[in-house]
Structures
1.
Amino acid sequence: MRRLFLAAAALFATAAVAQPQPLKPPKLLVVISVDQFSANLFDEYRPQFTSGLARLASGTMFRNGYQSHAMTETCPGHSTILTGDHPARTGIVNNNWIDQSIARSDKSVYCAEDETVPGTSSIAYKVSPRHLLVPTLGELMKARWPGSRSVAVAGKDRAAVMMGGHNPDQRWYWTGAKYDTDLAGVAMPPVVAKVNALAAAGLASARGPLGTTPFCESRSREVAISGGGKPVGSGRLARDAGDQAAFRASPEFDGDTLALAAALVDAMQLGKRADPDLLTIGLSATDYVGHTYGTEGEEMCLQLTELDREIGDFLDVLDSRGIDYAVALTADHGGNDVPERERLAGVADAVRVDPALNIASMGKALVARLGLSGPGLLGDGSYGDIYLDRGLRASDRARLLQAAVAAYRAHPQVEAVFTASQIAATPVPTTPPESWSLIQRVRASYLAGRSGDFFVLLKRDVTPIANTTTHVATHGSLWDYDRRVPILFWRPGTSGTAVEHSVETTDIMPTLASMIGLPVQPGSVDGHCLAEVPGTHCVAR
Ligand SMILES: [Zn+2]
């Protein structure tokens, strides 16, 4: 009996030892957004990653993450990541929208500006989070733990604003010559000045071609571009001294942003206090590389190779400081390759948009046909939210809407047109995002008063760039190449799982909140806590 008891006790003890220790909440949450990092690119390059991205992919890897909404642009995408809400609730329906009620002559409103500041425009704007209608994770953390620090760093101001929210302690982004802040009373810490000096010195000198790898060399093939642009595909990202555009479209830019993030970890002593801290990092170079060279050439290969290494170096810094941290990485949207190379790869329908679909041209033609005056239609480019000129009488606006919807629907490159009343009558869906209908996707980035009077969808594989002299490829559609993004959670010392089912970028905020014990009532945000991530205590839906 006694022997049996001892044996049972020993078994019990073994079982007790084998139980994993409950994870303590991390002291620092690091949230990285890689601009235009599509799930297609992630899938394609995952076997090539050996450093930071390989470490993050070894955690809980959701390769079918979704920026579920239709307007897959930088500002709406970043607004979903740390609010837990779709753009319909964050209010960030696009990078720019039209507001014909504002006083200034420029009726375009930039998502991250305060257009009420006299003398500003949507180009020369005053940076502000005022259009973001909901709080971010950092705000909720600071409300619960007044000692929490929230720091936002990014290549683009809109990435820093939308992830950092309304009251970060620090907010730094590249303004064309240096990393700067709009926060009143925040002096430039010496570490920021140091990174700025290094970035300025780097930019001022020419850079030779980057070293390549056998894999990237195998991607090297020059492809001619229609629409006036230069050929792409076999560049190694060399640049002239002082070339700003080439600097942004290269891994140097992300390297400087990560150096700034690492410097601020030390300067702000992030992860070293009793209360948890948040650091958000917007890495913008992948987006500029995608726009400048497309996604399937040697240029993107070199960018992602360097990004992997740079993120690895950054994680090494966190490790060397002995910080207990957790990382979430995702993207604000995906992206698509240049149609010229897509056709070579067998995508027969890949084309550039018909210039006749340009909103200004379309408006002009319709106004002439209906005997009206003024621009008729307002909006950016050739698709998405389109606004009727409020200078027209209501009866003329109704005629114009009818004519515009018919004209767009008749065009062979147009998939569908929805009016604002049709969109508003559609509930925001709660089913898995891959099953959403087209109008449901549009609804998730629709807000009355900011969104257009109607919405035009281009067909799959229509690239909405006709003139390619500055950009050759882009994103912004509701097709899955623009919606599907990786979502990775990783914490040093934890083992991971690869999850196939779809999740959404709105799930990131409630998941991170759960990791640090910050209550988020189910249903109070669009997203859901992801129970697959170690250290979460998700409440059942
Ligand atoms: Zn972009």
2.
Amino acid sequence: MGGKLGTIFARAGHEVVFSYARSVQKLKRLAREAQGSARAGTPDEAARGADALLFAVHWSRADDVLKQAGDLSGKVIVTCSLPMNAEDTGLVIAHTSSGAEELSKKVPRAHVISAFGTVPSEVLFPVFENRRKAKRPSLVYCGDDGGAKEVAAGLIRDVGFEPEDAGPLRIARYMEPFTLLIAQLAYEGAGGPELAYRFERFG
Ligand SMILES: NC(=O)c1ccc[n+]([C@@H]2O[C@H](COP(=O)([O-])OP(=O)(O)OC[C@H]3O[C@@H](n4cnc5c(N)ncnc54)[C@H](OP(=O)(O)O)[C@@H]3O)[C@@H](O)[C@H]2O)c1
């Protein structure tokens, strides 16, 4: 998710720092291939001076990456991470809370937005390539800070989705289980993982 979204953000004109992987070479390759203004760095370097941070790690890595990122006061953190168990077979937090809400408790002075986690990574480049088409797919997002939500909505549009404001951060507790439905359709269904969704309103 981080590699693909970072690449798209760079191609959309943002300055991107790829960070957090076991291989610096991988981060450097991502930066090179992004073809925009991108570089590799540590989580701390990525966080410093950034207008927005994408939190895209396995749930088990959350504390480690936060420790490496340092002080995130005032930062916009867009999370696509799902609170999955070690085997990736189920959510370890659900119904009464969400990964996004628990992340927000870990960094109370940052502005956490939940976005991008409801679609498979395989659909991101196809959506970006089709961004000039009239009918864009939807992408739900939620959060508690108005300014941070505007930043997230801009990034969502840059990728090629139509942002669908789902309300406050606690709505992530409904979004995250919805993602498991999308994953079922994407990875177990017949049509393949290049799957997005679109809300239509009638009347
Ligand atoms: N993949 C999807 O389609 C999708 C869709 C919706 C939501 N999500 C959620 O998004 C989050 C990211 O998913 P992903 O599929 O992008 O995961 P991923 O491919 O495993 O990427 C996570 C990043 O964390 C790094 N990492 C893992 N262990 C590390 C360690 N011990 N030290 C340093 N870096 C480490 C990985 O680097 P390495 O190269 O070293 O592994 C990679 O850069 C997850 O919470 C997932 O539930 C994923």
3.
Amino acid sequence: MARKNNHHKKNSTRRSSNGRRDLQSALASQRTYAILDYRLEKPQFTLRQVRAGDEIRYEVEGDLTAPVPPIRESKYLDKKQCIEIYRWMLLNRKMETALENLYKQGKVVGGVYFGLGQEACSCASAYALKPDEWLGPLIRNQGSLLVRGFSPRDIMMQYMAKAGSPTKGRDASSHFGDIQQHNVVAPISTLGDLIPVLAGVALGTRLQGRNIAVMTYIGDGGQSTGVTYEGLNFAAVQNLGLVLFVENNLWGYSTPADMQFRVKDLAERAIAYGIPSVIVDGTDACQVYDAAHEACERARRGEGPTLIEAKMMRMKGHAIHDAAEYVPKPLFEYWRKRDPIARFENYLLSKKWLSPAENRELIAGVDQQLEADRDFAVNSPLPSPDSAAGGTYCEPGCHEIKPKYGMPKVRRTPRPKLVREEAEVHLK
Ligand SMILES: Cc1ncc(C[n+]2csc(CCOP(=O)(O)OP(=O)(O)O)c2C)c(N)n1
Ligand SMILES: [Mg+2]
């Protein structure tokens, strides 16, 4: 019996060692990919579509009772920078509240788009850029616009189509940029189109001798567009310094993320482009900043693009006209507890980087600034009718675009004598 057992053992050892070898060689030929994940919690719930007669509604399944995680300590931000980001987030939130009120008073032309719940993503990402770098925001990234140097009065005047607004009353909402001072490409409504445009900016600066970081955003819905693939693939192939934030706010209009794509994390899509990716909690300003900073540094070293998936929740409807009744209430409750501003405020207070009195002073300062800007915007004139046709067509000099960073780098390669010498621009 013992012998039999031994024999059996011997055989089974051989089998298992062969099995191990097979497994080892299988593993050796298997390709694995790593996705950094900075989150301190990984929400596990799904949305299910339920049909009740002619009505469709969504139900949320999963644990919604998990405690709110702490803010992750930043590897890079100091006290002063954290307070600055907190102030931008507050300004972002309170400016949008002011816009909502202006809309309700009938002073806004068109709709208003909100980034409620996404302030950490907008502000801490843009904060990682240097002044001479470039940003291409989406309509919800009004916080990014503030960080890049637009004032609340610019944004309010824009929404009210005032003569002094960035587009001089020609467009309401936030379709404006500034290629002279702020290095901001205007949001493009056709989703995904900002990506090749920003890749083009990075290519342009490289031709002028500089590797810089250029940052743009795409939503969980917008990232499925063909142009997203084309733009990001181009940036990857050309090693362009594009930092792409995929803002997974769980909704594209009224379609939940679970019904938009099959991958677990949108960061996985980076694997197919051959570029690195990171997942962050988009309601944690420190995580957003750290991932953005690391991606910007890669860009500056000429190492190419990075995809950052920021997970969070769109806390309002698509725009002011949308009451978001299709969103299950428990989902709002879950994310309300993860409010990016309240969490960052608590973090700063508990770290004693901000005293309650300093916090009150900071909040009062934001309120004062907004009141002054709102009054200025409300009292500023609408464009005069005779200005309507101005600025529509090119006027002499209005589109003169000078290289910002230096004359394009051109390398002349020696050619046989009889062949006309041509300048060869090297892209890589
Ligand atoms: C190419 C393209 N298709 C469709 C639309 C219409 N559209 C505007 S916003 C939107 C939903 C976008 O959802 P998401 O990308 O998740 O961004 P979010 O609104 O959540 O910030 C759609 C479908 C568009 N603007 N562009
Ligand atoms: Mg979305």
4.
Amino acid sequence: MTDLGDFDLAVVGGGVNGAGIARDAAGRGLSVLLVEKDDFAQGTSSRSSKLVHGGLRYLEHYKFRLVREALIEREVLFRAAPHIVRPMRFVLPHSPEQRPAWLIRLGLLLYDHLGGRELLPPSRSLDLRRAPEGSPLRHEFSRGFVYSDCWVDDARLVILNVLDASRLGARTLARTALVGARRDDGLWDLAFRGGGENRARARALINASGPWVETVLGAAGASSTKRVRLVKGSHLITRKFWEGEQAYLLQNVDRRVVFVSPYEDDFALIGTTDVPFAGAPEDAAIDEAEIDDLIGVVGRYFSRAPARSDILYSVSGVRPLFDDGTDDASAVTRDYAFDLDASHGAAPLLTIFGGKITTYRCLAEQTLDRLRRFFPVMKPAWTNGAALPGGAPEGLDSSGFVRALETRFPWLPAPIASDYARRYGTRADELLLGATTLDDLGRCFGGRFYEREARFLASQEFAVTAEDVLERRTKHYLRLTPAERRAFEAWFDGEWRAANRTLFPLGPSRLTGQ
Ligand SMILES: Cc1cc2nc3c(=O)[nH]c(=O)nc-3n(C[C@H](O)[C@H](O)[C@H](O)COP(=O)(O)OP(=O)(O)OC[C@H]3O[C@@H](n4cnc5c(N)ncnc54)[C@H](O)[C@@H]3O)c2cc1C
């Protein structure tokens, strides 16, 4: 039994919300423990559509406050982490069964102006028969619109928040599950499992466990009148099948929308679905109906749309939506709610319901505002305007990072420079420290993946298994053949870890049977 010590705040869940709260709290001077039962970002926060967006369709549900907050946050996040957040243009082809074109134009104007847009270009109408963005679409789509939102590497956003929390003094433990919590003498007495049995005490407990929120409430012997609605969403990954860097927003016959976004240069990410879900979130997987649905909608719009046989991968995640009682899964609010249980001077338990990647920073700020009375000397809010690790010297966007890196390391092949700049921003210099030729990057495991990057991720970004490296901190899995992947696993999970066992002990990676 290891005693991890005493903390002001224990945060359960290393998704975007838990990581964001841990970072914010550590920066305000609290002593913080963050625990994640699997790898950081292994839950919903690596399975999203990766949009930092206001959510155009939420305007239809009159969610003006949520849309405005998210639109403002879009540029806050872009400024904080322009290496992993980038502007994207979305083409919206108009089809007869949609709302009238004038109404969509009006909605886009509102979207342009609701959230203090400063950096992103405004929306406009498109003649799809003439504009290059129209060329991959079927001929019947002659009219459309184009508008701006941002794209983010969601898993890396989580990792950067964990890194910053850790830099600010938080103890951040992956593969450590909260298994029990009880109030004792004004504190939380906490029990964890992962790489052994651990205990800790904390003055306040935050339940940021997303789809697992009710299980964690149970472990703390608590309950809430609020509920989560679990809604599965899936994406398909295919080769990219259009020219240009724009994404497409397609309306399905049932009015749900499907995004088709460029992904990792050569691939396409197609999603999402909204399917009510019951069961263990770890077991979420795409079903045949979702595949038919996504392939069907893309086929309605694109003239050279992918077929089932073109699907390379699918990714499914479970949205932990705050249950507002709405029947239709796609209409349930994307807003968040808090439940603070601190009656009669008991140690507080704050539970988070819902949220979006886009609004995680505001959610973290509001979480700490709610805890202020328990920590009166806590420093004020600070994350609005603060860069995330690797974030920009003023004014650099992701292509600026790429050019700067190419200038400093002219021997680096362009695709690798682009990968490193977009993944690590200014931290790419640490990765490349002392390297003067490609040979200095060590063994190539296939695609653009070199040994030095794997070592950097293990030593600097808490990567413990090959999957942590290939699927969350990078997306190298997309470019490796099965044999190349096996060779990397054999090296990283075997030979290399054996040599570094004391540095990177491996806890049980899947405590809940994923
Ligand atoms: C298909 C899909 C598409 C989406 N697209 C977008 C989008 O484009 N833009 C957007 O803004 N939002 C999007 N979202 C929403 C967004 O992804 C989620 O709201 C967000 O990721 C939730 O983060 P979280 O931290 O609450 O949950 P999670 O990321 O699931 O994190 C919770 C963590 O808690 C851990 N945990 C659970 N139990 C324990 C325990 N006992 N001990 C320790 N750790 C534990 C889990 O392992 C998990 O990692 C999408 C969601 C889905 C499913």
